[in-house]
Design a protein that fits this description.
Length: 999
Amino acid sequence: MKKLTTGLLVLVLSSSIAVAHAQEKKDTLKTKEIEGVVVTALGIKREKKSLGYASQEIKGGALSDGTTNTGNIAAQLSGKVAGLNVTTNNNFGGSSNLLIRGVKTLGGGNPLIVIDGSPVNNTYTQEKNIDYGNALSDINQEDIESINVLKGAAASALYGERGLNGVIVITTKNGKGKDDGSWGVTFSSAIQVGFIDKSTFPEYQTKYGAGYAQKFGAQAPDGLNYANFGADASWGPKFDPNLMVYQWDSFNPLSPNAGKATPWVAAKNGPIKFFNNPASYINSVTLEKGQKGKNISFTYENMMSDGLMPNSHLNKNNFSLKINYDLTPKLHSTFYSTLTLQDTKGRSITGYSNNTVTGFRQWWQTNVDLNDLESIYLANVDPKVASAANNYGNVTWSRKSAANGAPAYWNNPYFQAYQNYTSDKRYRSFTYAQVTYDLLDNITVTGKVSYDRSNLMAENRLAFGSLPQAFGQSNNSIGSGYARRDVLRNETNYDLMVNYKFDITDNINVSGVVGGNIRRNYMNSVYASTEGGLVVPGIYALSNSKKAPLASDEIESITQTNSGYVTASFDFFKKFYLDGTWRVDQSSTLPAGNNVYNYPSVTGALIMSEILDTKSWMNFWKLRANYAEVGGTADPYQLVNNYRSAGILSNTGIYNPILSQPNPNLKPQRSKEFEVGTEVHFLRDRITLDVAYYKTKTVDQIITLPVSSGTGFTGKVINAGRIDNSGVEVQLGLVPIKSKDFTWNIDVNWSKNKNEVIDLYPGITNLLLNSFQGGVSLNARVGEAWGTLVGADYTYVNGQKVIDPKTGKYLQNPNQVIGNTTPDWIGGIRNSFSYKGFSLSFLIDMRKGGDIFSTDMYYGLSSGLYKETAEGDYRDKPIVLPGVFPDGTPNNIGLSPFADNNAAVGYKTQPSREFVYDGSFIKLREASIGYTLPKSVLAGTKIYDAKISIVGRNLWIIHKNLPYADPEAMVGGGINSYGWSIGSMPTTRDLGINVTFKF
């Protein structure tokens, strides 16, 4: 991979420089302003050349024009920003995790999202192994003018306690209309279809069927064999078309094979046939009109999507309105409001238990045909025949025995999809109103109010006939039930800012902002469920509970932060820029005495091309440096004991025990960062280069440290831990060819971050972050990068694996470091070509390193599913594992596959270290071909602009090391997006056709 990437970069660079030199004199295009204006913190517009810190702007077209609409703008940032690591899973409507410049806090963390200067909620929600996505997916990409990524502390210092993980600044479009001042109408329509990338789904062996050993367990009265019904593995007897066997479908009267023995052969339709080709239909219309001081834009977008899983649908409607209006020549107003209504059905279950895809990847019988499962489900679920006798339609391959059709381990996957489906509805609105008054020529006053509100109502169903499982408030194992979660979040911001600008001399000026902010957050969450099962099948309501429901789990919090800030930006002769900012926050979630704190920053930018007069060959050169501090406050209820009701006993209220000991002396988290960088433009911007180096230290992190239960608690809230990050970011822009009709642009970004946990707490060297199925955990360990994977490793003698002389299997060494989820580097290369009305672009997205533990391989190899377990005569002879006995002599013990259930591979023999894979990948992330119709073709019509595009996403995984899965497809967002591959949905290659008409 390294050779491929290096060779590609060298080829691109050398050819680009050569062509650019050759064409420099032919370039007739006028040189534009080098940097332009970008939107920074608090919505402040700045000349980019004056900034003393790294930021990277992505125009709205670059986000959406070259790819299919993912429904989540976060996913469309993949590979486009140096230092921004985007992890996108394949869960239907699921989360995308954003990480800027490495993990800075022990619990992970996502950047702050800001729209037109106002923060918005980007909470990731997961409930009972369901990924409900992150709130950024509510943003309508049709509204986005640009996104500016503020990477470091100096860029985000004005956000104080919220700026620790960087900031994503989204600027929305203003209404423009037609040149004659009349209304403009834009209509866009897209159709997208996904096709499974087969490299991200298992390849099954087709030689052996159900069983834990190569023999049938029992015989029917007529002497024929029964299949191994209770075995959810494929280590059974060898297939033989002449061998007749009573299989799972022989015992259902509605099956065409009822009472019949059928040939013992591999299924024609394996689990990959279970999935659909997901399709999406996106239509939007924008009405806009604009002139100086008055413009309006209204957009409506509808997105209808079907997921990979049967019975999965998403319907999302977005409405947005933006008005800019000058009330007087000195009084300017802006109003923006967006409303999202989303209805989702059939989200996929994540993790291990009850996840259909986990069954496909780990515990399956290769003799089971999916078409037969679907047919028998449809025949038995009919209300006329559904009853306890046929498990209410849940006729499954995983029956307990020939005489007992109850599910042993797994439901029929179609019953799971159509009866045990989840559903959720989300309402999201974001609104702000702003007025600006030009008090003097050099002083303006701005007042602003913003309100962000989201409501999520999520329902979970467990239908009659289901395999009993842990469910609901009590988490007892039951065979039917209903649960719901209602979550309300809102945030209100009140801002008052005074912008000033003064000329100290003719060549020296100062500008800045003095302002204040009041932020109020409210959260209310209620979770309730039935207990003991449902009374009446098919009625999903809390009132349909066999037993009295437990007290609902309710959480409510109200927090407030008051802030003041001041900035000063000095411009010396347009050659040197010096900025300083200071912000003071007061948080309601910290104790008096520790709840007022400040965050400073200082930045400098030196325009060397002006000082040295290098414009003849280097038209722009800037050196920059900065130092800043940002931080984070505590979550609610960490200062004093708080109690949750557990119901009523003998007319007396009872409460759950307090598990985490609060801390009345908490301090805010703090991160300190130093950054230096340079930006150079050569050959009239034919070659541009931006390089940044940073070093960050984050201290006083607020964590819950596990403690001995003998203290009366299981955890204690403390300030502890230090994490250091340092890294390099590179942005390279090349224009190898630029002529009147043809242009070729290359945009390259690359970043490397080094992370280290310096300390945790006196006497503590490891903090558990997450536990995985298979005995592996995610940890923050002193002296290691955040994200250490800990589990069992081999035992070694002189570098060779040690065999247990009693069993012939490997001796395992528990609690060892077996990997780390932190990638070595990330990068992306975009090529864009335009010729007259045609355009072509493609994006290569890359990640090097970042280990992943595959629970699927850990179990799936042992259960005999994968093709590796049946190659050649692998199952027909004893296997001697490579290794030595403790005394150093070679192993000579053969393991019989007949007796040991394929003991040579999988979790029964190999330690978890064997199933840790390098998470590197190279992907053709995006590609598009577009054509804009000539004006001459549109003459005489009401259409003045028309474009058609063919777009694609995830078209080719060029390289990966993780078998049968996508290295990005983790369990969910947040902490669940690191290092764990289990039961993930296959990745799809998505193709779409987009058409846009402007009237």
